[in-house]
């Protein structure tokens, strides 16, 4: 289905001095300006383009890659502020409008804002909104523990990091399950830890499979060998230090050293880990 604000594959139907016209179905023939056309493009060729409205409200195509499409969330830089709202850099020549009515705080040029992209019903233009809650699903989630999901980090809380799951629901990565630096707008893979009775969703960044555990154990053994058989790491070591040294969460670290200890491959003392 061909939609504004989405990437679609269209066929070239006509070439003119200033570009190429593409068959966009119900939108008719839309222009792909020469500056966005690949070399040797010809009538009959098909290519992936992004559709949006130009300054005259006419559908137009580009081969530029937007940082987000309609229906998605993204952390975008505020490049200017005017009397109609803030303008965001979304990867296209024409900036994206964040209207004043869709803002949650006064915009500051040079700062970043997590927004949702949607079509404004009044004029069919693609606009951004910082009022994220109204674009999330309010129905109870049906995720299963261990299910792989797509996450967008929304920001830090006292408990950990809020994240948007599959562009649909709020979830939380507890601080104890965070093993690498996270920032608002980060897009990454995660897993459902549990859906609570109150509907809140807990997330993890690792699935905790046997393969992952074995990989983490291998990393620890190699680090011990490279360090001459001793690492000053243990249960009381800060999670950030463990991630910096080993690239894993503190929870994964504790599980791994427990398994290695049971196998007799290392000793755990108050000052750290010793290779047997």
Care to describe what's here?
This is S1 motif domain-containing protein. GO terms for molecular function: nucleic acid binding. With 276 residues, the protein is mainly beta. The chain has four domains: 7-62, Nucleic acid-binding proteins (OB fold (Dihydrolipoamide Acetyltransferase, E2P)); 73-134, Beta Barrel (OB fold (Dihydrolipoamide Acetyltransferase, E2P)), CATH 2.40.50.140; 148-204, OB fold (Dihydrolipoamide Acetyltransferase, E2P); 210-275, Winged helix-like DNA-binding domain superfamily/Winged helix DNA-binding domain (Arc Repressor Mutant, subunit A), CATH 1.10.10. Helix content is 14%, strand content 39%. The chain has helices at 210-226, 239-246, 250-262; strands at residues 7-16, 19-23, 29-33, 46-53, 59-62, 73-82, 85-89, 96-99, 112-119, 126-129, 148-156, 160-165, 169-174, 187-195, 201-204, 230-231, 266-269, 272-275. α1 crosses α3. The radius of gyration is 25 Å and the shape is elongated.
């Amino acid at each position: 289905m061909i939609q504004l604000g989405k990437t679609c594959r269209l066929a070239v139907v006509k070439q003119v001095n200033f570009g190429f016209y593409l068959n966009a179905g119900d939108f008719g023939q839309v222009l792909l300006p020469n500056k966005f056309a690949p070399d040797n493009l010809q009538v009959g060729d098909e290519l992936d383009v992004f559709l949006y409205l130009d300054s005259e409200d006419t559908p137009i195509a580009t081969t530029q890659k937007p940082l987000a499409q309609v229906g998605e969330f993204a952390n975008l830089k505020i490049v200017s502020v005017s009397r109609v709202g803030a303008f965001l850099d979304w990867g296209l020549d024409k900036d994206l409008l964040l209207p004043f009515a869709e803002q949650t705080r006064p915009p500051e040029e040079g700062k970043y804002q997590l927004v949702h992209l949607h079509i404004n019903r009044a004029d069919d233009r693609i606009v951004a909104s910082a009022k994220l809650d109204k674009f999330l699903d309010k129905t109870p989630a049906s995720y299963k523990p261990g299910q792989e999901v797509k996450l967008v980090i929304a920001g830090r809380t006292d408990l950990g990091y809020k994240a948007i799951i599959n562009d649909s629901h709020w979830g939380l990565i507890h601080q104890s399950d965070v093993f690498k630096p996270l920032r608002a707008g980060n897009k990454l893979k995660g897993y459902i830890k549990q859906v609570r009775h109150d509907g809140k969703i807990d997330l993890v960044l690792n699935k905790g499979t046997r393969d992952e555990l074995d990989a983490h154990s291998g990393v620890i053994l190699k680090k011990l060998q490279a360090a001459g058989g001793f690492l000053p790491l243990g249960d009381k070591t800060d999670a950030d230090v463990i991630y910096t040294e080993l690239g894993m969460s503190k929870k994964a670290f504790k599980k791994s050293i427990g398994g290695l200890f049971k196998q007799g491959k290392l000793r755990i003392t108050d000052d750290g880990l010793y290779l047997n």
